[in-house]
Amino acid sequence: MSKIFLSHSSYNNAHALALACWLKENGWDDYFLDVDEPAKGLAPGERWQASLKHAAHRCEAVIFLISPAWRDSRWCQAEFLLAKQLGKAIFGVLVEATPLETLPKEMTAEWQLCDLVQGAKRCTYQVSHDPIVPQTEVSFADAGLTRLKIGLQRAGLDPASFPWPPHDDPKRVPYRGMKPLEAVDAAVFFGRDAAIVHGLDTLRAMQEQHIERMLVILGASGSGKSSFMRAGLWPRLMRDDLHFLPLPVIRPEHAVLNGPAGLIASLETAFNDLGQTKTRASIRTELQAPNGLMHLLNELQQLACTRISAAFSSTRESEKPVPTVVIAIDQAEELTSTEGRKESEPFLAMLAENLSLPESDQVTLERIKNRPLVIVTIRSDAYERLQTEPSLEDISPRLFDLPPISPKQYKTVIEGPATRATAAGHKLTVESKLTEQLLRDAEGADALPLLAFTLERLYVEYGSDGDLRLDEYNAMGGVRGSIEAVVEAAFAEPGRQPVVPAGKAERNALLHKAFVPWLAGVDPHTSERMRKIARWDELPPETHPLLERLIEVRLLLRDRCKLDYGMQESEAVEVVEVAHEALLRQWNMLSQWLDDDEIDLKALESVQRAASDWRKHGGTDTWLVHGGARLVAAERICARTDFNRLLGEAGSAYLTACRAKEDQLQRALKGTPEYDLKDLTQKWQKRTGLKRLFGLVGWWKLFRFRGLASPESLESTFLRWSRARASINALVLVLLIAFLTQVLIQSADWAKENDLTTEYALFKPLWVLGYTPKPELVEVPAGQFTMGCLEGRDDVAYRCGSDEKPVHEVTIPKPFLMGKHEVTFLEYDTFVWHMRQNGNKRKDGSEWLYPDDENWPDRLNRPVINVNWHDAQAYTRWLGQQTGQTCRLPTEAEWEYAARGGKATAYHWGSEFGNNNANCNNCGSDWDGDMTAPVGSFPANPYDLHDMSGNVWEWTCSGYSDELVKEIAQQCLQADSTKNRVLRGGSWYYDPNLMRASNRHNDHPVDRYYDIVFRVLCLSPIE
Predict the structure, then answer these.
(1) What is the predicted pLDDT for the residue at 715?
(2) 48 assigned to some structural domain
(3) CA distance to 413, 437, 477, 968, per residue, from 421 (Å)
């Protein structure tokens, strides 16, 4: 993975090579530079756009070498906007004197610049790169390089950039076992480099775009979601304090507001860290006020702004960065548990209030930007319950899939922490044979938590002598036997305190009583094992000594928790939970207990959730969802004392209400099929002639009514008629299906042979029958306009390009018709089919082919791409023959006149680009920088033309020149001319500046690209 991307103008190749030398000297030898050797930059023949974008997706940070040439290059500006869109950490370094006020304001306002020009103390390099760069001497200011080095170190993703051991915990164990790693463990968190890069990129992009404000990290149990957020993302967000203000991570448990890791505790710590004391009592009071959480978060933002304002002392107040508050919720499945609903419901309501925007015209840009970001980790199988929470129905989350760590990364997970411990002065080596054996043993389900647990035990038991060896691992029982071995060791001396039964059978019976149903459950929808948080005083007292032993060996975790708003600290209760859900699957005895009790545990969990919903909605019959066999299974668990006790009065009341409703329903439905048959027969008897055919019943009711009618009854006659009609219908249906199936099979084979999507199997028969979809044409009126880049009108973001001048007046003498949309794949594919049917060839004599759609979805409605100028001209001629009109591509002048829509602004909707007005790079649409949008996805201009700005470049029939020549812009080139043709409109790949109506681009008439298309013009006023 290339960690650092160097972006520069070709005029500064020497500076780039010199900076690359400096990076190597300072330990950053993993970078991307386009003029370097192929391994570091572009290989010969590669397309630079695709290669740069691919490299940008892999890098962690981008260094921009700023100079007048960089400032004036639209391609360099595009790279800067792309880096912002991808959420990269950005570093600007001045390599030539450049007035800061001429740079993009986003560069100077949001990111600190390093000046490598000013300074007496210099660092000099001799560089060359034949044949691009001759031998050149380049020197940088040493002070600027020092500042850049500090910035890169703070942005570093490598665990080596974090200290170990923590300053306040010098004896901290480098292997953390089944417990999730914390922010202080970032130095020993290995195996997730790529996911961390992607996660930080996603968060920066969400912060920049101000659309989605909730990131949901989805992963299976045991995939390491908690450690990824706590030790992967969080410490890096804390370092980036200019842009993010991450609060301490929240763990809901049973009390997401008042718990030891709840919202109130998180806010209290955040205020203390920023130098302001705020008690939990005062925070609790403020939260209960209207918009209480919003005011508290705004107060934290202001404190953070005050802390960092010194770094931007020369920046105007309005342009100083405001860090975004980030709220993290770990193990968010606990928010939907029945035990914690009393606090989770108001918490989710507060969260939604701060993430959503009020339906008001008074919403300010500051309110949009100041919304917090929320990150949650949750098991994939539990996400549906969070997704359907009523409070969150207006929140659109961004999903982040976190698959299990690849086994290829296990070596770094094993050896990385030992390397960091050794570097810190605490020698620890891992025998190579041990690593090899661990890699062989760490396979299958829960491999990662079992590996972590085993490494922690190895370190605790054998690490004090400075090494971990294979013989020690074998003596411990290996990965798969590690849990069983720890359990046996925990109970090895029954007589020591706390005293436990000596007999294994008695111990196991007590453990079963404690774990099922208090500490472990089964999800009723997914059958996944779930750990549960239990109050210590609710667990059977006779099981306490056994549980104490398991707490000692870290298989169980104990904490104190306040379960209600009004509780004082002294009233907090002790709670216990399993250290990791992997224990529920990998401890064979416990797993067998859960298998044996699975049906009852599912029923218990289902009843608890349903009872909670029923009580919340006022106890109405609508929320009584248990009936039939499901109710019988639920009632069975009441016979078990332990289950009935956990169910409580609320669950028992719910089941009693369900039974009453079920009994009433059964009484009401008694005899229903017979009643229905008699009623339908009477209605049929009253009909005459053909009307009787429409009163017959189908196969389903025939099946339902079987055996109900006596042979000689009217009902039996009615059923015989119904059976006869149903048989005839079935025969006709079979024949019709057989015929259509044969047609569709042939069409599907044709679509597959031509690399077309499956829906074309339906369109080919329609084409054969004469169906010919054509572009919809709209009338563009006659008129006058000033063509080109007019200062004050078109130079809204950057200066006018030299090829956009001189401006001149153009008259369009009469109306003409123009395609309302760009030509779509369906319309162009219809043309190709006709050409192939008639044996026509392309201009170069080759066969007509269906264009490549880049495997993007919804081919039919997207603008056709990968079509050159000659193909486009051939389509317009064919269209003219089909419609009886004279059709062609528009001239450059006609195109700009139509694009402006009679408006004297850079874009047809105004002078500012705004948000989600078009599809381009960083334009706020769903397709930004990724692909084309379906035609008509954005509002039309005043002439009812869609997508004249953005989406795809459009061919014109005019030739290109370096200046805007009036005569050339109003003429069409001959087809045999090899001059480049003008392209207009910008595309999904480029930034908003290139979407202006005056912007010009060009390409050779034989070239095809994934961002070039065309639209047609008919009855042209200029002949």
Answers:
(1) 59
(2) yes
(3) 13, 22, 25, 72
Do both 425 and 522 map to the same domain?
Answer: no
Q: Rounded to an integer, what distance in angstroms lies between the CA atom of residue 604 and that of residue 660? A: 19
Strand partners, 887: 1018
pLDDT per residue over 985-1007, tens digit each? 999 998 888 899 999 999 999 99
Residue where a domain terminates, one of 661, 691, 707: 661
Phi-psi region of 400 (alpha: psi -120 to 50; beta: other; left: phi over 0): beta
For residue 113, the enclosing domain spans 4-156
**Do 323 and 415 share a structural domain?**
no
* 266, 248 Cβ separation under 8 angstroms: yes
374, 519: one domain: no
What would the 3-class secondary structure string for 721-770 be? HHHHHHHHHHHHHHHHHHHHHHHHHHHHHHHHHCCCCCCHHHHHHHHHCC
Burial of 702 (0-12, 13-18, 19+ CB in 10 A): middle
Window from 277-291, 329-343, 684-698, 751-765 with minimum mean pLDDT = 684-698
Query: Is 171:156 a contact under the CB 8 Å cutoff?
Result: no
**314 and 433 housed in the same domain:** no
Specify the number of domains making up the chain.
6
How do residues 412-459 score in pLDDT, each as one tens digit?
A: 999 999 999 998 889 999 999 999 988 888 876 678 888 888 899 899
Query: Is 163 part of any domain?
Result: no
Contact (Cβ atoms closer than 8 angstroms) between residue 828 and residue 874 = no
CA–CA distance, 708 with 706 (Å, rounded to integer): 6
- Cα separation, 418 vs 424, in Å, equals 10
DSSP character string of 313-340: TTS-GGGS--PEEEEEESSGGGGGSGGG
One domain for residues 850 and 938: yes
Name which residue leads in pLDDT, 57 or 772.
772
835 and 964 part of one domain:
yes
Q: How confident is residue 714, by pLDDT bands cut at 50, 70 and 90?
A: low
Instruction: Say if 173 falls within a structural domain.
Output: no
Q: What average pLDDT does the chain have?
A: 84
Backbone φ and ψ of 454, nearest 5°:
-65, -45
Q: Among residues 152, 136, 142, 129, which one has the least CA distance to residue 63?
A: 152
Same domain, 576 and 435: no
Q: Is 215 left (phi over 0), alpha (psi -120 to 50) or beta?
A: beta
Where is 704: in which H helix or E strand? helix 699-704
Distance between CA atoms of residues 61 and 51, nearest Å: 16
* Helix or strand holding residue 1011 (H, E): none
Domain boundary among 661, 679, 709: 661
